[in-house]
């Protein structure tokens, strides 16, 4: 009885560790090679379009609305203390430090990560990947590498756009609608936001999340069981795993950056 | 979808991201000191700095003239020494000037209020590295709480 349970536990652990090992080998094979910019740049550009530009709409809209909601909620509490001028720092700091990187990563996992997994999983199921290998084209270099770089490049950019739009959305609600002083909104923000401490740490956070989300998405697709059911499972797993990983790493990064 | 169109859209995306970064770093963050950027240092020794922090503003009559550069403890007297980074534009403070730790509003953060003193023949002008001798904590309530905590904490 107990031995059976132990065996199950061991089996699962070994499977998890093997999966991580395969993911590392995949990433290593995709990234460690002689760079061929002439060949890979057009591929990267195509993926930047698919991963970055097409995610722009959802990022812009959610950024705007999250900034607006933050200002609305913050105002109700701050006005009780007569501290409406702190609305700017509230919106800016919460977006720069937390919401910008985290919500962007979650949306990115849902919008782009799932698409990457499904695309690569289907390529695997329809044996396009093995076809490439037959033609002596390395699918890791041709398929995985440009998608990986596109994700890692575009997510910090998306997070910055998200944050900027959110702050403008906060301005829209706080200043234009609720009547907080516009100069105070910006100047209190400038007095409380530090470039190194807040903005750069936010960028570092979103770069880490980009790496995690893209890597998980690519690995789940590349490792998917090549059936329609397997692909659907892999896509679900991408969203679930990368969301959990982002939230977990967010706590660790926050503790390291702002905890001490 | 032609390759040119993709390139243009990706270019637009990157430009948008750069614009967002510029907005964040120029409009949202305090990019150092406003003005020339040339600064000089003054020092002041306090009994208790309360909640003063590094980068707290230094104000003369409400106008920000500099920021707190660092706060250290004097190892001889164990009293805090605040290093003040002041814009070189304002380099005419006499040595009779005084510094007080003030609070903006009831719940606001603390800042240094610099009060220029009188000038006559015997009074010289503060140079970089000089100490402002006349320092005080302004708000009595806070000083009381501060001293209470200080006494409790020290033994």
Radius of gyration of chain B: 22 Å
Order of helices and strands of chain A: HHHHHHHHH
Give me the number of helical elements of chain A: 9
Work out the oligomeric state of the chains in this entry. Answer: heterodimer
In helices, the fraction of residues of chain B equals 25-40%
| Tally of contiguous helical segments of chain B | 2
The most extensive interface between chains reads: A-B, 30 and 25 residues
What gap, in angstroms, lies between the N and C termini of chain A?
A: 46 Å
Number of strands of chain B: 8
**Proportion of strand residues of chain A:** under 5%
Shape of chain B: elongated
The outline of chain A comes out as elongated
Sheet bearing the most strands of chain A, described? none
Strand order of the largest sheet of chain B: 7-1-4-3-2-6-5-8
Tally the beta strands of chain A: 0
**Biggest sheet overview of chain B:** 8 strands, mixed
Topology:
The complex is a heterodimer of chains A (260) and B (155).
Chain A: H1 2-31, H2 37-52, H3 56-80, H4 87-125, H5 128-134, H6 139-177, H7 182-192, H8 195-222, H9 228-258
Helix pairs in contact in A: 1-6, 1-8, 2-6, 3-4, 3-6, 4-6, 4-7, 4-8, 4-9, 6-8, 8-9
Chain B: H1 3-28, E1 39-45, E2 57-60, E3 63-73, E4 80-87, E5 98-103, E6 110-115, E7 131-132, E8 134-137, H2 140-154
Parallel strand pairs in B: 1-7, 2-6, 5-8
Antiparallel strand pairs in B: 1-4, 2-3, 3-4, 5-6
